[in-house]
Automatic annotation (TrEMBL):
Modified residues (4-aspartylphosphate): 63
Residue ranges occupied by any HTH luxR-type domain in the UniProt entry: 150-215
Alphabetized CDD domains for the sequence: LuxR_C_like (cd06170), REC_NarL-like (cd17535)
Gene3D superfamilies xref list: 3.40.50.2300
Protein name: Response regulator
Alphabetical keyword list: DNA-binding, Phosphoprotein, Transcription, Transcription regulation
Entry-linked InterPro entries: CheY-like_superfamily, NreC/VraR/RcsB-like_REC, Sig_transdc_resp-reg_C-effctor, Sig_transdc_resp-reg_receiver, Tscrpt_reg_LuxR_C, WalR-like
Pfam families, per the entry: GerE, Response_reg
Ranges for domain Response regulatory: 12-128
UniProt keyword annotation of Transcription regulation present: yes
Length: 218
């Protein structure tokens, strides 16, 4: 309760998912519960960033794999732009190649879509307060990852390194990558140097091949 008004705080949300049925279901679920208001919906990461900046919700419920713009890139962009909104990932994927980049990019929490309704409500409230929320499966994976020494040539890529590598895989030149990501060519080369070292690759083609093989791309 707030002292000024004596009313409960309403948490505002933006729902981001490429499936209309999922978006409708989430909107209906939050509409039926007191203390929540869905301000808008987006079907991809690009639209999510635009709406989050315009609507300024407390929490963005973000899916990860979406045609037209993935969730990790959107999370990273919101962080770079200094958005106030907290991002709570809500997805069906709990692999290392999904969870780690999302959290590195700036997600406040990570929840799976099979989470019970009350758990989702609790997670959204926690995210709005800036508290980290992880589903048990994801938390277990992260703890295991921290406790297990990383083998040489098998370190995880940062969100920006994955972004650069994804553009390399599409045949984009360093100059084009720099323009696309609003960074210098020197920075692109630095990211690629780190990518090569982490993947144990000697050049661009080898890095892309290793990334596909390990499920980092695709």
């Amino acid at each position: 309760m707030t002292e000024a008004t004596g009313t409960a705080r309403v948490i505002t949300l933006l729902v981001v998912d490429d499936h209309p049925v999922v978006r409708d279901g989430l909107r209906g679920m939050f509409a039926s519960a007191p203390g929540f208001e869905v301000l808008g919906e987006a079907a991809d990461g690009v639209a999510a960033v635009e709406l989050a900046l315009r609507l300024d919700p407390d929490v963005v419920l973000m899916d990860l794999r979406m045609p037209g713009g993935g969730g990790v890139a959107a999370i990273a962009r919101l962080a770079r732009l200094g958005a106030r909104s907290r991002v709570l990932v809500l997805t069906t994927y709990d692999t290392d190649s999904d969870t780690l980049p999302a959290i590195e990019a700036g997600a406040t929490g990570y929840l799976l879509k099979d989470a019970p309704r009350d758990e989702l409500f609790t997670a959204v409230r926690a995210a709005a307060d800036g508290r980290t929320v992880l589903s048990p499966a994801v938390a277990s994976r992260l703890v295991s990852r921290v406790r297990t020494p990383t083998a040489p040539g098998n370190e995880s890529l940062s969100a920006r390194e994955r972004e650069v590598l994804g553009l390399v895989a599409r045949g984009t030149s360093n100059r084009e990558i720099a323009a696309e990501l609003f960074i210098s060519e020197a920075t692109v080369k630095t990211h690629l140097t780190h990518v090569f070292a982490k993947l144990g690759a000697k050049d661009r083609a080898a890095a892309v091949a290793v990334a596909y093989e390990r499920g980092i791309l695709g």
